[in-house]
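User: Show me a protein chain along with its predicted structure.
Assistant: Here is one chain, sequence first, then structure tokens.
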Amino acid sequence: MTQFLEWFFWISAFIVFYTYLGYGLLLYVLVRIKRLFVGKKKAPAFDELPEVTLFITAWNEESVIEGKMENCRALNYPKDKLKIFWVTDGTTDSTNEKLKSYSDVTVHFRPERLGKTAAMTRGVTFVNTPLIVFTDANTFLNADSVINIVNRFADQKVGCVAGEKRVMQQEKDKAVSSGEGFYWKYESKLKTWDDELCSVVGAAGELFAIRTHLFEEMPKDTLLDDFILSLRIVMRGYKTAYTPDAYAEETSSAEMVEEEKRKVRIAAGGLQSVWRLRALLNVFKYGTVSFQYISHRVLRWTLTPLLLFLLLPLNVFLIALEPSNLLYIIIFILQILFYVAGHAGKLLEQRKIRFKLLFIPYYFIFMNICVYKGVAYLRKKRTNGAWERAKRA
């Protein structure tokens, strides 16, 4: 019994470590080895830029229309080659009326709200450019974002390009912006290495682009349309590239309660995606991409959150069985300190006291708890992809 618990404990600890830190370290080493033998290739660029559709799905976004359109018009891309599409299904506020004042905008509206995935599927049928750049209404792109993304498509092996998501830091950071900001900085580094090794495993909806003919219709209840679409393109033999010099900035959720809505939906979408993309788990068919997908995504949404919270009770059992084992005692103390730090971060956030160092363990624990809540979210058996939007800071 003791031997079984020891094996289970150490395997669990390894999986948790590998998921959050080990894969990043291994990825870095693999990329360095690849550079020794292959070198770092410079991406080609177009001699003549192609036409592009900037595709924005929206639901009741009247408060951001002016800012978003100002941002769109500030993009460094030939105006005659950039088409701006808004798909505003289900909108009941003044979004459509405000968009009418912009002569360079095409609006596709339908009264029924079926969610973002259904809106994307309907809207893409009106696109007649070879490339589509998807972005959200409440995000703001850097001036060279579109041209930097488009140039990655000069490589014919690239079917999708992911931009970088950045969380705007507030003057007095909350746990939300500190935790999410740290998380996305780490994610950006992993995506950079994923891209260099083989392919990025999933794009974020704030900013990504595809070859129009590669768009696939997805079930209307799809929660992570951007993620599933980008990986389906990879499964067809293309690569998803990553371009951190094309970024979308957005504010963090207003409070942790609002952030929870977003994280639970993402966790539920992750679990849904693992099932719908289960063919990608076949490492014999998809090779390196499958290895990246399992390491970077699947473990985070399935096995690792379960093992993470099992480590503490397992540790207690092992200390009870081997009270003289100093290693188990040290690991137990470290776990307790970590959870205490996370709880302290929560208490400080509730009291509006800013201390970034404690916000990171708090946000980490919070994200893993949201995976469990994501299971409950899926059990509601929603009929479409419409979801309650989190309020932003």
